[in-house]
Amino acid sequence: MHALYTAIFEPGFFASPQVHVAVSIGAVVAVVSAVTGVFTVMRGQSFAGHALGDVSAAGGSGALLIGLSPLAGFVGLGVIGSAVMDLIGVQRLRGRDLATGIVLGAAIGLSALFIHLTSISSSITGVTQQILFGSIFAVTPGTLPVVTALGVIALAVLGTVGRPLLLSTVSPDIAAARGVPVRVVGLLYMLALAVSVGLSSLVVGAILSTALLIGPPAAALRLTRRMAWAQLTACLIGVLATWLGVLLAYDSYYWGASHESLPVSFFVVAIIFVGYLASGLRVARGRRCSRPS
Amino acid sequence: MTDIAEHAILNVDQVSVALSGRQILDQVSFTVGAGQFTGLIGPNGAGKTTLLRVILGLQRPSAGSVSVLGKPLSGRQQAVGYVPQKVQLDPDMPVRARDLVALGIDGNRYGLRLRPAWRSEAVREMLHAVDADRFADARVGDLSGGEQQRVLIAHALISRPRLLLLDEPLANLDLRSGQEIVSLLARIAREQQIAVLLSAHEMNPLLPVMDRVVYLAAGRAASGTTAEVITSPVLSSLYGYQVDVLHVHGRVLVVAGAGEQV
Questions:
Q1: pLDDT grade, residue A293 (50/70/90)?
Q2: Residue A1: inside a domain, yes or no?
Q3: Domain span at residue B191?
Q4: Cα A230 vs. chain centroid, distance in angstroms?
Q5: In terms of Cα–Cα distance, which of A193, A205, A152, A188 is closest to A52?
Q6: Confidence of residue B2 (pLDDT cuts 50, 70, 90)
Q7: CB within 8 Å: B94 and A226
Q8: Would you call B107 and A179 a contact, using CB atoms and an 8 Å cutoff?
Q9: For residues B146 and B170, what is the distance between their CA atoms, to the nearest angstrom?
Q10: Residue B86, Cβ neighbours under 10 Å: how many?
Q11: What is the tally of structural domains in chain B?
Protein backbone atom coordinates (compact mmCIF):
# COMPACT_ATOMS: atom_id res chain seq x y z
CA MET A 1 0.00 0.00 0.00
CA HIS A 2 2.73 2.40 1.00
CA ALA A 3 4.72 1.42 -2.05
CA LEU A 4 1.79 2.25 -4.28
CA TYR A 5 1.36 5.59 -2.54
CA THR A 6 4.99 6.57 -3.02
CA ALA A 7 4.80 5.37 -6.61
CA ILE A 8 1.98 7.84 -7.21
CA PHE A 9 3.26 10.69 -5.07
CA GLU A 10 7.04 10.61 -5.28
CA PRO A 11 8.97 11.89 -2.22
CA GLY A 12 8.58 15.56 -1.38
CA PHE A 13 5.61 16.23 -3.66
CA PHE A 14 3.40 17.73 -0.96
CA ALA A 15 6.23 19.58 0.74
CA SER A 16 7.60 21.22 -2.38
CA PRO A 17 6.90 24.98 -2.52
CA GLN A 18 7.13 24.85 -6.32
CA VAL A 19 4.37 22.26 -6.36
CA HIS A 20 2.21 24.46 -4.11
CA VAL A 21 2.54 27.39 -6.48
CA ALA A 22 2.05 25.22 -9.55
CA VAL A 23 -1.08 23.58 -8.17
CA SER A 24 -2.65 26.90 -7.10
CA ILE A 25 -1.87 28.77 -10.30
CA GLY A 26 -2.83 25.75 -12.37
CA ALA A 27 -6.26 25.63 -10.76
CA VAL A 28 -6.97 29.34 -11.22
CA VAL A 29 -5.83 29.27 -14.82
CA ALA A 30 -7.75 26.08 -15.63
CA VAL A 31 -10.98 27.57 -14.28
CA VAL A 32 -10.61 30.86 -16.17
CA SER A 33 -9.67 29.01 -19.37
CA ALA A 34 -12.62 26.65 -19.07
CA VAL A 35 -15.23 29.36 -18.53
CA THR A 36 -13.85 31.46 -21.37
CA GLY A 37 -13.26 28.45 -23.61
CA VAL A 38 -16.88 27.30 -23.61
CA PHE A 39 -17.76 30.58 -25.33
CA THR A 40 -14.73 30.28 -27.62
CA VAL A 41 -15.79 26.84 -28.83
CA MET A 42 -19.43 27.92 -29.25
CA ARG A 43 -18.42 31.01 -31.22
CA GLY A 44 -16.12 28.94 -33.44
CA GLN A 45 -13.17 31.13 -32.49
CA SER A 46 -10.60 28.56 -31.46
CA PHE A 47 -8.41 29.80 -34.31
CA ALA A 48 -8.59 33.32 -32.84
CA GLY A 49 -7.67 31.80 -29.47
CA HIS A 50 -4.66 30.13 -31.02
CA ALA A 51 -3.57 33.36 -32.71
CA LEU A 52 -3.82 35.13 -29.35
CA GLY A 53 -1.50 32.47 -27.94
CA ASP A 54 1.05 33.40 -30.58
CA VAL A 55 0.59 37.08 -29.77
CA SER A 56 1.17 36.18 -26.12
CA ALA A 57 4.39 34.44 -27.13
CA ALA A 58 5.61 37.64 -28.77
CA GLY A 59 4.56 39.58 -25.67
CA GLY A 60 6.18 37.19 -23.22
CA SER A 61 9.47 37.02 -25.08
CA GLY A 62 9.45 40.78 -25.61
CA ALA A 63 8.87 41.33 -21.90
CA LEU A 64 11.81 39.08 -21.02
CA LEU A 65 14.00 40.97 -23.47
CA ILE A 66 13.37 44.30 -21.75
CA GLY A 67 13.58 42.76 -18.31
CA LEU A 68 9.89 42.51 -17.38
CA SER A 69 7.99 39.50 -16.12
CA PRO A 70 6.77 37.33 -19.01
CA LEU A 71 3.23 37.42 -17.56
CA ALA A 72 3.05 41.18 -18.16
CA GLY A 73 3.94 40.57 -21.80
CA PHE A 74 1.66 37.55 -22.21
CA VAL A 75 -1.39 39.47 -21.01
CA GLY A 76 -0.43 42.95 -22.15
CA LEU A 77 0.27 42.21 -25.80
CA GLY A 78 -2.57 39.67 -25.88
CA VAL A 79 -5.06 42.36 -24.85
CA ILE A 80 -3.75 44.76 -27.48
CA GLY A 81 -3.73 41.99 -30.09
CA SER A 82 -7.32 40.98 -29.35
CA ALA A 83 -8.50 44.57 -29.68
CA VAL A 84 -6.71 44.91 -33.02
CA MET A 85 -8.12 41.62 -34.27
CA ASP A 86 -11.60 42.73 -33.28
CA LEU A 87 -11.11 46.09 -34.95
CA ILE A 88 -9.89 44.84 -38.32
CA GLY A 89 -11.88 41.71 -38.81
CA VAL A 90 -15.10 41.39 -36.93
CA GLN A 91 -17.53 42.55 -39.60
CA ARG A 92 -17.37 39.46 -41.74
CA LEU A 93 -16.71 35.89 -40.72
CA ARG A 94 -14.21 35.39 -43.51
CA GLY A 95 -12.57 38.70 -42.77
CA ARG A 96 -12.09 37.59 -39.18
CA ASP A 97 -10.40 34.40 -40.27
CA LEU A 98 -8.04 36.31 -42.52
CA ALA A 99 -7.25 38.96 -39.90
CA THR A 100 -6.55 36.22 -37.39
CA GLY A 101 -4.16 34.44 -39.72
CA ILE A 102 -2.22 37.60 -40.49
CA VAL A 103 -1.89 38.60 -36.82
CA LEU A 104 -0.77 35.04 -36.02
CA GLY A 105 2.01 35.07 -38.61
CA ALA A 106 3.31 38.45 -37.51
CA ALA A 107 3.29 37.37 -33.86
CA ILE A 108 5.32 34.22 -34.44
CA GLY A 109 7.85 36.23 -36.43
CA LEU A 110 8.23 38.70 -33.58
CA SER A 111 8.59 35.87 -31.05
CA ALA A 112 11.39 34.37 -33.11
CA LEU A 113 13.20 37.71 -33.07
CA PHE A 114 12.64 38.43 -29.37
CA ILE A 115 13.63 34.93 -28.24
CA HIS A 116 16.79 35.11 -30.35
CA LEU A 117 17.73 38.54 -28.98
CA THR A 118 17.02 37.49 -25.40
CA SER A 119 19.14 34.37 -25.63
CA ILE A 120 22.16 36.23 -27.04
CA SER A 121 21.89 39.28 -24.79
CA SER A 122 21.29 37.65 -21.42
CA SER A 123 22.22 34.67 -19.34
CA ILE A 124 18.60 33.46 -19.09
CA THR A 125 18.53 29.85 -20.19
CA GLY A 126 15.62 27.95 -21.67
CA VAL A 127 13.82 31.02 -22.99
CA THR A 128 12.25 29.14 -25.87
CA GLN A 129 10.99 26.42 -23.57
CA GLN A 130 9.69 28.91 -21.01
CA ILE A 131 7.79 31.13 -23.45
CA LEU A 132 6.49 28.62 -25.94
CA PHE A 133 5.86 25.61 -23.74
CA GLY A 134 5.50 27.01 -20.25
CA SER A 135 7.44 26.63 -17.06
CA ILE A 136 4.99 26.44 -14.21
CA PHE A 137 7.58 25.10 -11.73
CA ALA A 138 9.64 28.26 -12.28
CA VAL A 139 6.81 30.61 -11.36
CA THR A 140 7.51 32.61 -8.19
CA PRO A 141 4.95 32.60 -5.33
CA GLY A 142 4.54 36.37 -5.75
CA THR A 143 2.91 35.78 -9.14
CA LEU A 144 -0.09 33.99 -7.61
CA PRO A 145 -1.97 37.13 -6.42
CA VAL A 146 -1.47 38.76 -9.83
CA VAL A 147 -2.73 35.67 -11.63
CA THR A 148 -5.73 35.44 -9.31
CA ALA A 149 -6.60 39.11 -9.76
CA LEU A 150 -6.41 38.87 -13.55
CA GLY A 151 -8.49 35.70 -13.47
CA VAL A 152 -11.14 37.35 -11.32
CA ILE A 153 -11.31 40.31 -13.73
CA ALA A 154 -11.79 38.00 -16.73
CA LEU A 155 -14.48 36.00 -14.90
CA ALA A 156 -16.23 39.18 -13.76
CA VAL A 157 -16.37 40.49 -17.33
CA LEU A 158 -17.80 37.19 -18.59
CA GLY A 159 -20.25 37.03 -15.69
CA THR A 160 -21.51 40.51 -16.52
CA VAL A 161 -21.98 40.04 -20.26
CA GLY A 162 -22.74 36.30 -20.06
CA ARG A 163 -26.35 36.32 -21.23
CA PRO A 164 -26.07 38.98 -23.95
CA LEU A 165 -22.91 37.19 -25.11
CA LEU A 166 -24.75 33.86 -25.25
CA LEU A 167 -27.63 35.47 -27.14
CA SER A 168 -25.31 37.10 -29.66
CA THR A 169 -23.49 33.79 -30.04
CA VAL A 170 -26.77 32.03 -30.83
CA SER A 171 -27.84 34.79 -33.24
CA PRO A 172 -26.22 38.22 -33.64
CA ASP A 173 -29.36 39.36 -35.50
CA ILE A 174 -31.73 38.54 -32.65
CA ALA A 175 -29.35 40.04 -30.10
CA ALA A 176 -29.04 43.27 -32.08
CA ALA A 177 -32.81 43.48 -32.47
CA ARG A 178 -33.19 43.13 -28.70
CA GLY A 179 -30.89 46.07 -28.12
CA VAL A 180 -27.69 44.16 -27.28
CA PRO A 181 -24.61 46.10 -28.40
CA VAL A 182 -23.25 43.03 -30.19
CA ARG A 183 -19.87 44.52 -31.07
CA VAL A 184 -19.14 45.86 -27.60
CA VAL A 185 -20.12 42.56 -26.01
CA GLY A 186 -17.94 40.72 -28.55
CA LEU A 187 -15.00 42.99 -27.80
CA LEU A 188 -15.34 42.49 -24.03
CA TYR A 189 -15.33 38.76 -24.62
CA MET A 190 -12.18 39.06 -26.78
CA LEU A 191 -10.45 40.96 -23.97
CA ALA A 192 -11.40 38.26 -21.46
CA LEU A 193 -10.11 35.70 -23.95
CA ALA A 194 -6.79 37.54 -24.21
CA VAL A 195 -6.36 37.58 -20.43
CA SER A 196 -7.26 33.93 -20.19
CA VAL A 197 -4.82 32.94 -22.96
CA GLY A 198 -2.11 35.05 -21.33
CA LEU A 199 -2.64 33.27 -18.03
CA SER A 200 -2.56 29.81 -19.54
CA SER A 201 0.65 30.75 -21.40
CA LEU A 202 2.19 30.78 -17.95
CA VAL A 203 1.10 27.20 -17.26
CA VAL A 204 1.35 25.34 -20.56
CA GLY A 205 3.16 27.93 -22.67
CA ALA A 206 1.93 30.37 -25.25
CA ILE A 207 1.84 27.87 -28.11
CA LEU A 208 -0.08 25.29 -26.09
CA SER A 209 -2.44 27.72 -24.34
CA THR A 210 -5.14 26.85 -26.86
CA ALA A 211 -5.10 23.26 -25.63
CA LEU A 212 -6.15 24.32 -22.14
CA LEU A 213 -8.62 26.84 -23.57
CA ILE A 214 -10.33 24.56 -26.09
CA GLY A 215 -9.79 20.98 -24.90
CA PRO A 216 -11.77 20.85 -21.64
CA PRO A 217 -14.72 22.86 -23.04
CA ALA A 218 -14.80 20.75 -26.21
CA ALA A 219 -15.02 17.58 -24.12
CA ALA A 220 -17.57 19.16 -21.75
CA LEU A 221 -19.81 20.27 -24.63
CA ARG A 222 -20.04 16.65 -25.73
CA LEU A 223 -21.14 15.56 -22.28
CA THR A 224 -23.81 18.05 -21.25
CA ARG A 225 -26.72 19.94 -22.73
CA ARG A 226 -26.66 22.99 -20.49
CA MET A 227 -24.44 26.02 -20.51
CA ALA A 228 -23.81 26.15 -16.76
CA TRP A 229 -23.03 22.44 -16.58
CA ALA A 230 -20.78 22.65 -19.60
CA GLN A 231 -18.76 25.35 -17.87
CA LEU A 232 -18.64 23.42 -14.60
CA THR A 233 -17.60 20.20 -16.34
CA ALA A 234 -14.95 22.06 -18.34
CA CYS A 235 -13.59 23.53 -15.08
CA LEU A 236 -13.37 20.08 -13.51
CA ILE A 237 -11.64 18.55 -16.53
CA GLY A 238 -9.24 21.48 -16.79
CA VAL A 239 -8.29 21.50 -13.10
CA LEU A 240 -7.92 17.73 -13.03
CA ALA A 241 -5.73 17.70 -16.15
CA THR A 242 -3.55 20.48 -14.78
CA TRP A 243 -3.09 18.88 -11.38
CA LEU A 244 -2.41 15.45 -12.85
CA GLY A 245 0.04 17.04 -15.26
CA VAL A 246 1.90 18.69 -12.39
CA LEU A 247 1.99 15.40 -10.49
CA LEU A 248 3.23 13.35 -13.44
CA ALA A 249 5.86 15.92 -14.34
CA TYR A 250 7.08 15.91 -10.75
CA ASP A 251 7.15 12.12 -10.68
CA SER A 252 8.89 11.89 -14.04
CA TYR A 253 12.08 13.10 -12.33
CA TYR A 254 12.32 9.68 -10.68
CA TRP A 255 11.42 7.61 -13.70
CA GLY A 256 14.66 7.49 -15.62
CA ALA A 257 18.24 7.13 -14.49
CA SER A 258 19.09 10.56 -15.89
CA HIS A 259 16.83 12.37 -13.38
CA GLU A 260 15.42 14.87 -15.79
CA SER A 261 11.81 16.05 -15.33
CA LEU A 262 9.59 15.94 -18.39
CA PRO A 263 7.65 19.13 -19.19
CA VAL A 264 4.35 19.76 -17.37
CA SER A 265 2.73 21.06 -20.54
CA PHE A 266 3.24 17.74 -22.28
CA PHE A 267 1.34 15.88 -19.56
CA VAL A 268 -1.45 18.46 -19.29
CA VAL A 269 -2.05 18.49 -23.01
CA ALA A 270 -1.81 14.69 -23.27
CA ILE A 271 -4.41 14.24 -20.51
CA ILE A 272 -6.74 16.77 -22.14
CA PHE A 273 -6.35 14.97 -25.46
CA VAL A 274 -7.18 11.60 -23.90
CA GLY A 275 -10.14 13.19 -22.08
CA TYR A 276 -11.45 14.58 -25.35
CA LEU A 277 -11.21 11.16 -27.03
CA ALA A 278 -12.96 9.54 -24.05
CA SER A 279 -15.82 12.04 -24.23
CA GLY A 280 -16.25 11.05 -27.88
CA LEU A 281 -16.61 7.39 -26.91
CA ARG A 282 -19.27 8.28 -24.41
CA VAL A 283 -21.19 10.30 -27.00
CA ALA A 284 -20.96 7.48 -29.57
CA ARG A 285 -22.31 4.98 -27.07
CA GLY A 286 -25.06 7.38 -25.93
CA ARG A 287 -26.20 7.93 -29.52
CA ARG A 288 -26.41 4.18 -30.16
CA CYS A 289 -28.38 3.56 -27.00
CA SER A 290 -30.90 6.31 -27.60
CA ARG A 291 -31.55 5.47 -31.23
CA PRO A 292 -34.27 2.76 -31.16
CA SER A 293 -37.35 4.97 -30.80
CA MET B 1 -65.70 52.54 -39.70
CA THR B 2 -63.40 52.58 -36.69
CA ASP B 3 -60.38 54.78 -36.69
CA ILE B 4 -57.63 52.65 -38.22
CA ALA B 5 -54.81 54.61 -36.59
CA GLU B 6 -56.15 53.66 -33.18
CA HIS B 7 -55.64 49.98 -33.91
CA ALA B 8 -52.49 50.31 -35.96
CA ILE B 9 -49.60 48.49 -34.32
CA LEU B 10 -47.12 49.34 -37.04
CA ASN B 11 -47.12 52.37 -39.26
CA VAL B 12 -44.56 52.57 -42.05
CA ASP B 13 -44.67 55.99 -43.69
CA GLN B 14 -42.90 56.85 -46.95
CA VAL B 15 -39.78 54.87 -46.03
CA SER B 16 -36.87 55.02 -48.47
CA VAL B 17 -33.49 53.36 -48.06
CA ALA B 18 -30.45 53.90 -50.23
CA LEU B 19 -27.38 51.73 -49.60
CA SER B 20 -24.12 52.74 -51.28
CA GLY B 21 -25.95 54.69 -53.95
CA ARG B 22 -28.46 51.96 -54.74
CA GLN B 23 -32.13 52.58 -53.98
CA ILE B 24 -33.30 49.55 -51.95
CA LEU B 25 -36.66 50.89 -50.79
CA ASP B 26 -38.59 53.67 -52.48
CA GLN B 27 -41.33 55.45 -50.47
CA VAL B 28 -42.81 52.33 -48.89
CA SER B 29 -45.97 52.94 -46.82
CA PHE B 30 -48.36 50.57 -45.06
CA THR B 31 -49.94 49.88 -41.69
CA VAL B 32 -50.42 46.66 -39.77
CA GLY B 33 -53.25 46.32 -37.26
CA ALA B 34 -53.60 44.28 -34.07
CA GLY B 35 -54.39 40.63 -34.66
CA GLN B 36 -53.68 40.92 -38.36
CA PHE B 37 -51.60 38.44 -40.29
CA THR B 38 -49.74 40.31 -42.99
CA GLY B 39 -47.58 38.73 -45.65
CA LEU B 40 -44.60 40.70 -46.89
CA ILE B 41 -44.28 39.18 -50.33
CA GLY B 42 -41.73 39.81 -53.01
CA PRO B 43 -39.03 38.18 -55.11
CA ASN B 44 -35.51 37.73 -53.76
CA GLY B 45 -33.68 41.04 -53.59
CA ALA B 46 -36.88 43.09 -53.46
CA GLY B 47 -35.86 44.65 -50.13
CA LYS B 48 -37.88 42.54 -47.68
CA THR B 49 -35.04 41.99 -45.21
CA THR B 50 -34.03 45.66 -45.43
CA LEU B 51 -37.59 46.71 -44.66
CA LEU B 52 -37.73 44.43 -41.62
CA ARG B 53 -34.39 45.81 -40.43
CA VAL B 54 -35.77 49.34 -40.71
CA ILE B 55 -38.79 48.37 -38.62
CA LEU B 56 -36.46 46.83 -36.02
CA GLY B 57 -34.41 50.00 -35.86
CA LEU B 58 -31.30 48.22 -37.17
CA GLN B 59 -31.26 50.17 -40.42
CA ARG B 60 -31.78 53.91 -40.60
CA PRO B 61 -34.07 54.96 -43.45
CA SER B 62 -32.80 57.72 -45.70
CA ALA B 63 -36.30 59.19 -45.72
CA GLY B 64 -39.65 58.50 -44.10
CA SER B 65 -40.51 57.20 -40.66
CA VAL B 66 -41.68 54.12 -38.80
CA SER B 67 -43.80 54.11 -35.69
CA VAL B 68 -44.70 51.18 -33.47
CA LEU B 69 -47.78 51.61 -31.24
CA GLY B 70 -47.95 55.24 -32.32
CA LYS B 71 -44.45 56.00 -31.07
CA PRO B 72 -41.49 56.67 -33.33
CA LEU B 73 -38.70 54.08 -33.26
CA SER B 74 -36.27 54.34 -30.40
CA GLY B 75 -33.15 52.25 -29.89
CA ARG B 76 -34.66 49.29 -28.08
CA GLN B 77 -37.75 47.58 -29.45
CA GLN B 78 -39.45 45.91 -26.53
CA ALA B 79 -42.77 45.74 -28.38
CA VAL B 80 -41.32 43.92 -31.39
CA GLY B 81 -40.44 40.23 -31.56
CA TYR B 82 -38.12 39.05 -34.32
CA VAL B 83 -37.29 35.76 -35.98
CA PRO B 84 -34.43 36.38 -38.41
CA GLN B 85 -33.64 34.49 -41.58
CA LYS B 86 -31.21 31.56 -41.39
CA VAL B 87 -30.36 31.20 -37.73
CA GLN B 88 -27.44 28.75 -37.59
CA LEU B 89 -28.01 26.64 -34.50
CA ASP B 90 -24.93 24.50 -33.97
CA PRO B 91 -25.54 20.98 -32.59
CA ASP B 92 -22.59 21.49 -30.22
CA MET B 93 -24.21 24.43 -28.46
CA PRO B 94 -25.22 23.53 -24.92
CA VAL B 95 -28.53 25.33 -25.31
CA ARG B 96 -31.79 23.45 -24.86
CA ALA B 97 -35.04 24.61 -26.42
CA ARG B 98 -36.20 25.89 -23.03
CA ASP B 99 -32.92 27.76 -22.51
CA LEU B 100 -33.32 29.58 -25.81
CA VAL B 101 -36.88 30.55 -24.92
CA ALA B 102 -35.71 31.74 -21.50
CA LEU B 103 -33.17 33.97 -23.25
CA GLY B 104 -36.21 35.70 -24.73
CA ILE B 105 -36.96 36.99 -21.23
CA ASP B 106 -33.53 38.07 -20.06
CA GLY B 107 -31.04 37.49 -22.88
CA ASN B 108 -30.41 41.22 -23.10
CA ARG B 109 -29.78 41.72 -19.37
CA TYR B 110 -26.39 42.00 -17.75
CA GLY B 111 -25.09 40.34 -14.62
CA LEU B 112 -25.46 36.85 -13.28
CA ARG B 113 -28.70 35.00 -13.72
CA LEU B 114 -31.42 35.08 -11.13
CA ARG B 115 -34.01 32.44 -11.72
CA PRO B 116 -37.40 33.29 -10.31
CA ALA B 117 -39.99 30.52 -10.37
CA TRP B 118 -42.33 32.45 -12.67
CA ARG B 119 -39.62 32.37 -15.28
CA SER B 120 -39.49 28.63 -15.82
CA GLU B 121 -43.29 28.51 -15.60
CA ALA B 122 -43.56 31.19 -18.30
CA VAL B 123 -41.09 29.24 -20.45
CA ARG B 124 -43.14 26.06 -20.02
CA GLU B 125 -46.36 27.83 -21.02
CA MET B 126 -44.71 29.41 -24.04
CA LEU B 127 -43.28 26.10 -25.24
CA HIS B 128 -46.74 24.60 -24.88
CA ALA B 129 -48.30 27.47 -26.84
CA VAL B 130 -46.10 26.70 -29.86
CA ASP B 131 -46.52 22.95 -29.39
CA ALA B 132 -42.88 22.41 -28.51
CA ASP B 133 -43.24 20.56 -25.18
CA ARG B 134 -41.95 17.32 -26.71
CA PHE B 135 -38.49 18.65 -27.43
CA ALA B 136 -38.16 21.21 -24.63
CA ASP B 137 -35.06 19.48 -23.26
CA ALA B 138 -33.36 18.71 -26.56
CA ARG B 139 -30.44 20.78 -27.78
CA VAL B 140 -31.74 23.34 -30.29
CA GLY B 141 -29.02 22.33 -32.75
CA ASP B 142 -30.38 18.78 -32.84
CA LEU B 143 -33.92 19.85 -33.78
CA SER B 144 -35.42 19.83 -37.28
CA GLY B 145 -35.95 23.08 -39.17
CA GLY B 146 -39.64 23.24 -38.28
CA GLU B 147 -38.96 22.52 -34.61
CA GLN B 148 -36.28 25.20 -34.52
CA GLN B 149 -38.74 27.70 -36.01
CA ARG B 150 -41.22 26.93 -33.22
CA VAL B 151 -38.56 27.50 -30.58
CA LEU B 152 -37.45 30.76 -32.22
CA ILE B 153 -41.07 31.91 -32.36
CA ALA B 154 -41.48 31.08 -28.67
CA HIS B 155 -38.27 32.99 -27.96
CA ALA B 156 -39.65 36.01 -29.80
CA LEU B 157 -43.09 35.84 -28.20
CA ILE B 158 -42.20 35.35 -24.55
CA SER B 159 -41.47 39.02 -24.00
CA ARG B 160 -45.10 39.69 -25.00
CA PRO B 161 -44.46 41.84 -28.08
CA ARG B 162 -47.40 43.45 -29.91
CA LEU B 163 -45.71 42.97 -33.27
CA LEU B 164 -43.95 39.83 -34.50
CA LEU B 165 -41.61 40.04 -37.49
CA LEU B 166 -40.46 36.90 -39.26
CA ASP B 167 -37.94 36.93 -42.09
CA GLU B 168 -38.52 34.06 -44.56
CA PRO B 169 -39.40 31.53 -41.86
CA LEU B 170 -40.60 29.05 -44.47
CA ALA B 171 -37.51 29.22 -46.66
CA ASN B 172 -35.87 26.01 -45.49
CA LEU B 173 -38.90 24.02 -44.42
CA ASP B 174 -40.66 21.18 -46.15
CA LEU B 175 -44.24 21.96 -47.25
CA ARG B 176 -45.91 20.31 -44.31
CA SER B 177 -43.74 21.92 -41.60
CA GLY B 178 -44.27 25.22 -43.38
CA GLN B 179 -48.03 24.82 -43.24
CA GLU B 180 -47.89 23.97 -39.55
CA ILE B 181 -45.84 27.08 -38.81
CA VAL B 182 -48.21 29.27 -40.81
CA SER B 183 -51.33 28.00 -39.03
CA LEU B 184 -49.57 28.31 -35.67
CA LEU B 185 -48.77 31.95 -36.42
CA ALA B 186 -52.30 32.65 -37.62
CA ARG B 187 -53.69 31.21 -34.39
CA ILE B 188 -51.28 33.26 -32.26
CA ALA B 189 -52.14 36.45 -34.14
CA ARG B 190 -55.85 35.86 -33.58
CA GLU B 191 -55.73 34.66 -29.99
CA GLN B 192 -53.18 37.08 -28.60
CA GLN B 193 -54.09 40.01 -30.86
CA ILE B 194 -50.49 40.21 -32.07
CA ALA B 195 -49.73 41.77 -35.41
CA VAL B 196 -47.72 39.28 -37.49
CA LEU B 197 -45.63 40.48 -40.41
CA LEU B 198 -44.03 37.57 -42.25
CA SER B 199 -41.79 37.85 -45.30
CA ALA B 200 -41.83 35.21 -48.02
CA HIS B 201 -40.94 34.99 -51.68
CA GLU B 202 -43.72 32.49 -52.22
CA MET B 203 -47.25 33.59 -51.24
CA ASN B 204 -49.28 30.43 -51.81
CA PRO B 205 -48.67 28.82 -48.40
CA LEU B 206 -49.93 32.06 -46.82
CA LEU B 207 -53.08 32.57 -48.90
CA PRO B 208 -55.46 30.78 -46.50
CA VAL B 209 -54.45 32.87 -43.47
CA MET B 210 -53.22 36.18 -44.83
CA ASP B 211 -55.44 39.12 -43.79
CA ARG B 212 -53.41 41.61 -45.75
CA VAL B 213 -50.48 41.60 -48.10
CA VAL B 214 -47.63 44.01 -48.65
CA TYR B 215 -46.17 43.25 -52.06
CA LEU B 216 -42.63 44.49 -52.60
CA ALA B 217 -40.97 44.63 -56.01
CA ALA B 218 -38.05 46.74 -57.15
CA GLY B 219 -38.10 48.58 -53.82
CA ARG B 220 -41.70 49.75 -54.14
CA ALA B 221 -44.69 48.42 -52.26
CA ALA B 222 -48.42 47.98 -52.68
CA SER B 223 -50.58 46.95 -49.74
CA GLY B 224 -54.12 45.87 -49.11
CA THR B 225 -56.09 42.65 -49.21
CA THR B 226 -54.86 39.96 -51.60
CA ALA B 227 -57.82 40.69 -53.88
CA GLU B 228 -56.79 44.33 -54.08
CA VAL B 229 -53.05 43.84 -54.50
CA ILE B 230 -52.45 40.61 -56.35
CA THR B 231 -53.79 41.82 -59.66
CA SER B 232 -52.12 42.26 -62.98
CA PRO B 233 -52.39 46.10 -63.10
CA VAL B 234 -51.07 46.67 -59.53
CA LEU B 235 -48.14 44.27 -59.84
CA SER B 236 -47.31 45.44 -63.37
CA SER B 237 -46.94 49.01 -62.15
CA LEU B 238 -44.72 47.83 -59.26
CA TYR B 239 -42.43 45.76 -61.45
CA GLY B 240 -42.43 48.33 -64.22
CA TYR B 241 -43.27 45.75 -66.88
CA GLN B 242 -46.25 43.61 -67.80
CA VAL B 243 -46.96 40.94 -65.20
CA ASP B 244 -49.78 38.44 -65.36
CA VAL B 245 -51.55 37.00 -62.33
CA LEU B 246 -52.87 33.51 -62.96
CA HIS B 247 -55.23 31.61 -60.67
CA VAL B 248 -54.70 27.85 -60.84
CA HIS B 249 -56.61 25.51 -58.49
CA GLY B 250 -56.89 28.19 -55.81
CA ARG B 251 -53.23 29.09 -56.13
CA VAL B 252 -51.77 32.25 -57.52
CA LEU B 253 -48.95 32.46 -60.01
CA VAL B 254 -47.23 35.72 -60.84
CA VAL B 255 -45.50 35.48 -64.20
CA ALA B 256 -43.81 37.90 -66.51
CA GLY B 257 -46.13 38.93 -69.31
CA ALA B 258 -45.66 38.95 -73.05
CA GLY B 259 -43.16 41.79 -72.86
CA GLU B 260 -45.01 44.99 -73.76
CA GLN B 261 -44.21 48.03 -71.57
CA VAL B 262 -46.91 49.59 -69.37
A1: very low
A2: no
A3: 4-230
A4: 17
A5: A193
A6: very low
A7: yes
A8: no
A9: 9
A10: 10
A11: 2
Are both B181 and B243 inside the same structural domain?
no
A39-95 pLDDT per residue, tens: 999 988 888 888 899 999 999 999 988 988 889 999 999 999 888 888 776 555 556
Q: How confident is the model at residue A284 (pLDDT cuts 50, 70, 90)?
A: low
* B201-205 contacts, C-beta under 8 A, 24 or more apart: B201/B41, B201/B42, B201/B43, B201/B44, B201/B48, B201/B168, B201/B171, B202/B170, B203/B39, B203/B41, B203/B230, B203/B252, B204/B251, B204/B252, B205/B170, B205/B175, B205/B178, B205/B179
The reply to whether A6 falls in a domain is no
Strands B163-167, B195-200: pairing is parallel
Alpha carbon A12 to its chain centroid, in Å, reads 28
Closest CB from A170, A179, A225 relative to B76 = A179
Spell out which residues of chain B touch residue A175, defining contact as CB-CB under 8 Å. 107-108
- The shortest C-alpha distance from A276 to chain B (Å) reads 14
Domain that holds residue A171: 12-290
CATH number assigned to the domain comprising residue A23? 1.10.3470.10
Note whether B95 contacts A166, CB cutoff 8 Å: yes
User: Do B144 and B258 belong together in one domain?
Assistant: no
By CA distance, what is B59's nearest residue in A?
A177
B56 reaches A (C-beta below 8 A): yes
Residues B203, A151: Cα–Cα separation, whole Å: 54
In a domain, A167, yes or no: yes
Total count of domains within chain A: 1
